[in-house]
């Protein structure tokens, strides 16, 4: 749980505002608590648009109706 001071961080306030609009962002750099909140809201159907990296695959796999890839690359160590 975040303390009162942390709740006023610009990144927390911004995320709160976009989540209220049904839009979510999920990436490796987010605080674990925020990632969990986004996962729970998405699974509950409260997030209609989700911008995510591949780490959300386990959550999105059976829930999302449409997935749009903006960039596809495969890193295999040979390139």
Would you kindly provide a written description of the structure presented here, covering whatever features stand out?
Strand 1 (23-26), helix 2 (32-43) and strand 2 form a beta-alpha-beta unit. The model has no long low-confidence stretch (mean pLDDT 78). The protein has a domain at 15-60. The chain is globular, with a radius of gyration of 14 Å. It is an alpha+beta fold. It has a two-stranded parallel ribbon with strand order 1-2. It has helices at 10-20, 32-43, 57-60, and strands spanning 23-26, 49-52. Helix content is 34%, strand content 10%.
**Low-pLDDT residue intervals, each spanning 5 or more residues:** none
Largest sheet: 2 strands, parallel
Count of DSSP E strands? 2
Arithmetic mean of pLDDT: 78
Going across the major beta sheet, what is the strand order?
Answer: 1-2
Label the overall shape.
globular
Helix/strand/pairing category = alpha+beta
**Rg result:** 14 Å
Number of distinct helices = 3
Share in helix: 25-40%
* Assembly annotation: single chain
Strand content: 5-15%
**Helix-strand pattern:** HEHEH
């Amino acid at each position: 749980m975040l303390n009162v001071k942390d709740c006023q961080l610009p990144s927390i306030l911004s995320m709160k505002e976009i989540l209220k609009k049904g839009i979510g962002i999920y990436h490796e750099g987010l605080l674990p608590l925020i990632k969990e909140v986004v996962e729970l809201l998405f699974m509950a159907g409260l997030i209609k648009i989700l911008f995510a990296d591949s780490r959300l695959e386990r959550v999105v796999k059976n829930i999302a109706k449409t997935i749009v890839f903006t960039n596809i690359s495969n890193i295999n160590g040979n390139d």
